[in-house]
Amino acid sequence: MLRQCYRCVNKVNIRVTPVNSTPKNLTLERNGRLFTTLLLMTIIERTTAQSDISKRFEEKKTVFQSLKIEPVSARKARLRKLRTWIKANQAALRDAMYRDFRKPAAEVDTTEILPVLDEIKQALENLDRWAKTKKVDASLTMLGTRSVIMYEPKGVCLIISPWNYPFNLSAGPLVSALAAGNAVILKPSEMTPNTSTLISKMCKEVFTENEVTVFEGGTEVSQELLKLPFDHIFFTGSPSVGKIVMKAAAENLTSVTLELGGKSPTLVLPSANAKEAAQRIAVTKFINNGQTCIAPDYVFAHENIVADLIKNLKEEIPVRFGGSDGKIKTSPDYARIVNEKHFSRLSDLLRDAESKGATVETGGQLDFSQRFFEPVVLSNVSNASRVMEEEIFGPILPIVTYRSLDEVVQYINARPKPLALYIFGRKKSEINRVKKETSSGTVCINDCAIQFLHPNLPFGGVNTSGIGKSHGYYGFLAFSNEKPVLRQRNGLTAFRFFYPPYTPGVQRMIGWILKLF
Ligand code: NAD
Prior knowledge:
By secondary structure, this protein is α/β, with parallel strands linked by helices. 43% of the residues lie in helices and 19% in strands. Helix 3 (90-101) crosses helix 4, helix 4 packs parallel to helix 5 (168-179) and helix 9 (274-286) crosses helix 10 (306-320).
């Protein structure tokens, strides 16, 4: 696959990333045959990639049968090996994510490594119970039968992950898939190449090819993979690509889990503690440089608290991210925007908001060369500005003032269902009203984003923000076929009384049964 093409005067430097291997830099003399060579290389690479992908997939399908009948202890052994690798490679993980977007080491530990280790811990502690065949009671019409639910692995599963938490969102679903006993093909994001290459290395060192295969690369690799009849697809990414994935899955009637994005509103009620709310909003909005699917996207603050909230945000941001007077830029605690494309998108969003009357309350210093985007808090934001229409996915925090809760509920309900909804406040009646009258993937009260880390809560969106749930037991279920197995007794059965021919006696019996319900 051809990645980049930089032209010099007499030479052309190209960067070629073959599927499943490290990028190669080549320097070729510019001449008449150069572009033919490049074209041929691209075609050869692509054909090799396609056949490699199909070949690996077919191999996995063939050997899956042996994985399927393995005991739960074999799955656990795999997860233990993964845990050992992660612990031994903490420094390498920190280094890869620092090189990808200057992610601070502490953020790698807390938001990438810890959630995956916790997923593994939950699976190791609970897998015997999760995977155990469960008996179910017979209902009146089922008298005499015996039934169970078996949890069988779905088969060969595809995981496609995004760049914003590149390790967590690849390894987390991988744990669930392996806990459920599946074989996996994983495609990490091309936007964080250092982490993706490390994930590939990890899977080669920890698993056999039959268990897990990683295909690095971009859209074209994803598209090749999506043509194949996987047994489940677990996709994390944007709603627009989610639609592409779901359409492709429909061709093979493959089940999907879609972990998508969108705008997560944050409501600050007049009964809230402004200082505490500002602290929690600032931290969860600006860690990872705002590139978090469940970050508070924008804030609705009541008119009685909005000034206090903004004052506290202005104090809190420098405290958390390196100090005032431009010190954030040199702080090791503040990550960078992942690439130029996203940097330009975010600066356009900011310019658009300002041109439509938004006030910059704090921040907004930008340095394109370093992809440094200072945390920005905006007030007086017009509903027509792009920051109120698109998922921001960066360190811009619009604050909208509201007067009545009706406005807020109507505003949220008129838009796609959010992935997360946050409410700060003490007044139960108001909190309950918002919880009941709106719909969102998750709700968190008096904090943001931490619901993701709770191992016993299902995580996921609704409609445009996602389909299906993940994490812990719910992740295990996403990758399992809950197979009902019913055993009828020998001899006389309850159903015998309803068999045709439908004589008057049988019809009387049916009428009598219907009266019992
Ligand atoms: P993305 O949708 O652009 O890419 C995700 C993956 O899909 C990548 O591996 C990419 O290579 C692949 N892809 C991109 N275009 C494709 C195409 N046309 N066909 C097939 N595959 C394609 O998302 P992103 O930019 O990596 O991540 C940001 C988005 O992900 C945001 O919308 C964010 O809210 C969302 N997200 C959601 C969660 C969640 O848990 N719900 C977590 C993180 C990110």
